[in-house]
Specification:
Elements: H1 7-16, E1 22-28, H2 36-42, E2 58-63, H3 67-78, E3 85-89, H4 94-98, H5 109-122, E4 129-134, H6 143-152, E5 157-161, H7 175-184, E6 189-192, H8 198-208, E7 213-214, H9 217-221, H10 225-233, H11 245-262, H12 268-279, H13 284-293, H14 298-311
Parallel strand pairs: 1-2, 2-3, 3-4, 4-5, 5-6, 6-7
């Protein structure tokens, strides 16, 4: 999710736990071979064996519409050691779709097939090539056709966001349509879309028939969602211990430390506000923090964070807070 689930949140959410694998934001491929520095900027985990600091593998995602350029860039990216290459056929952004990428490609299953086949040929045989798609562009009439094209062209896994581009992020997600796709392909299918709670995840798996789900905004809102879902799947009746605001604060301090040391100064306070905006759906404390900090600058965030850590008697070193 461009501009949200970047390497900073991947680091923090995998520290919280419960996540098996991450997929990077898309790396946009146009008409040129990208230099290594572009891949490393978007997926800095490549410097750590392709894993987050918590040890969770990261699959790097490419977005583009030209099979040849996608293949060339996939080969260069593969040499840097990601835990697989993922191809984006789901982005609903207007600027991406206007240039023929993302979900727009779902109007042309033949090109979808060519892209997957070209990327599969370009990377080492041991490296997984997966894809993420929506149900379609304006409608879902070609959902199964696109999924079959992806599977038959060499993808080893398919993630399906259970809405069309036209449906954007508006509820509901049509998980039952993923079941139709599962019945038509012979590769693992992962369900995605409108999963905010453990109950949502269970309903999604029941309707889609999938045994795995991909979490997006739901994990940003509730960083403990993956842990709770894993506990529920493993049969723990009460789920895992809740990730409370107090539990989350050291991770927020770590988040702020990474933001302050690795991101553009102009983006620092905005990144914390962005996360707090999501967190306030789950935590009442985040609502108060968001209202307090929505016009804040970096130094104001420093003061607020230190005060919050002290309030709950959490050592400042717990999250390397500034």
């Amino acid at each position: 999710m461009e501009g949200l689930l970047d390497f900073v949140l991947r680091d923090i959410l995998t520290r919280v736990g419960g996540i098996d694998r991450c997929v990077s934001e898309f790396i946009r491929v146009t008409d040129q071979l990208l230099p290594d520095r572009v891949f490393l900027r978007i997926v800095p985990e490549l410097r750590n064996g392709g894993r987050t600091l918590a040890g969770v593998p990261v699959r790097a995602q490419l977005l583009g519409s030209d099979p040849h350029c996608m293949a060339e860039n996939a080969a260069r990216l593969a040499a840097l050691g990601p835990h697989g290459i993922d191809i984006n056929f789901g982005c609903p952004a207007k600027v991406v779709n206007r240039h023929g990428g993302g979900a727009k490609l779902l109007e042309d299953p033949e090109t979808v097939a060519l892209i997957v086949a070209a990327v599969r040929r370009a990377v080492p045989a041991h490296m997984p090539v997966s894809a993420k798609m929506r149900l379609g562009y304006l409608d879902d009439a070609r959902a199964v056709e696109n999924a079959v094209a992806i599977a038959q062209s060499g993808a080893s896994e398919l993630v399906v966001h259970a809405r069309t581009k036209a449906q954007a992020y508006n509820p509901p997600a049509y998980w039952d349509r993923i079941a139709d796709i599962r019945a038509a392909v012979n590769i693992p299918v992962v369900a995605n879309g409108e999963i905010w709670t453990v109950a949502d995840a269970k309903a999604c798996m029941a309707e889609s028939g999938c045994t795995s789900v991909m979490l997006g905004r739901g994990a940003v809102v509730d960083p403990g969602l993956a842990l709770a879902l894993r506990a529920a799947i493993n049969g723990q009746p009460d789920g895992s211990p809740e990730v409370s605001w107090v539990t989350l604060l050291p991770h927020m301090a770590s988040f702020w430390h990474i933001v302050c040391t690795q991101l553009d100064p102009k983006k620092r306070a905005g990144r914390l506000k962005q996360w707090l905006n999501f967190l306030r759906r789950r935590f009442s404390e985040a609502e108060g923090a968001y209202q307090q900090l929505k016009t804040a600058r970096d130094k104001d965030v420093d003061v607020w964070l230190i005060r919050e850590l002290q309030r709950y008697d959490i050592g400042q070193e717990a999250g390397q807070a500034k």
